[in-house]
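Figure 6 in text form: structure in, sequence out.
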């Protein structure tokens, strides 16, 4: 009987040690910011997948190559180091690629997508979107509706898609597909 009681402190210690990384990840997300807003969902260092909710989220990728899905709601999503793959989902989203060669896709809603550093691919969506490549040799694709497409610095390839699109700072412009 006493041997069984001796095992209880060991089991409790293991539970506490295993729970610490979860608690520290949650508290770390509380102190982080994305585009000046308090982060509600955060990735881990080393890459991984982060999913938002159907409400309005503020999502920050971790270091490494991350996949982020914003889902519905008006989300603010920030990449970080690494080559991130970010999809905004439904709603009017703000997507910031930051560093790395990122793929940033607005999907539904009127989205604002900024590539940041690196050679990024920005894809608008089904509504009026604002795509800004910023630094690097980027590919910007307007998709549907009337989009503002600004390549920024670098040798950028810009495609309009359907709608009346405005191009700025693009080395190569493909004619709208009206």
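Output sequence:
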């Amino acid at each position: 009987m006493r041997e069984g009681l001796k095992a209880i402190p060991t089991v409790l210690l293991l539970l506490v040690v295993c729970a610490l990384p979860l608690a520290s990840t949650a508290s770390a997300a509380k102190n982080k910011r994305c585009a000046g807003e308090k982060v509600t969902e955060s990735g881990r260092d080393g890459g991984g997948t982060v999913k938002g909710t159907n409400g309005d989220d503020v999502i920050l990728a971790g270091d490494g190559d991350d996949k982020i899905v914003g889902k519905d709601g008006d989300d603010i999503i920030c990449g970080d180091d690494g080559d991130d793959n970010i999809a905004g989902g439904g709603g009017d989203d703000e997507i910031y690629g930051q560093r790395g060669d990122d793929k940033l896709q607005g999907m539904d809603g009127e989205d604002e997508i900024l590539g940041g550093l690196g050679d990024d691919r920005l894809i608008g969506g089904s509504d009026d979107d604002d795509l800004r490549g910023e630094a690097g040799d980027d590919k910007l694709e307007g998709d549907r509706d009337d989009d503002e497409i600004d390549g920024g610095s670098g040798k950028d390839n810009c495609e309009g898609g359907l709608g009346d699109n405005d191009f700025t700072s693009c080395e190569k412009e493909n004619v709208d597909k009206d």
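Caption detail: Residues 10-28 have pLDDT under 50 and may be disordered.
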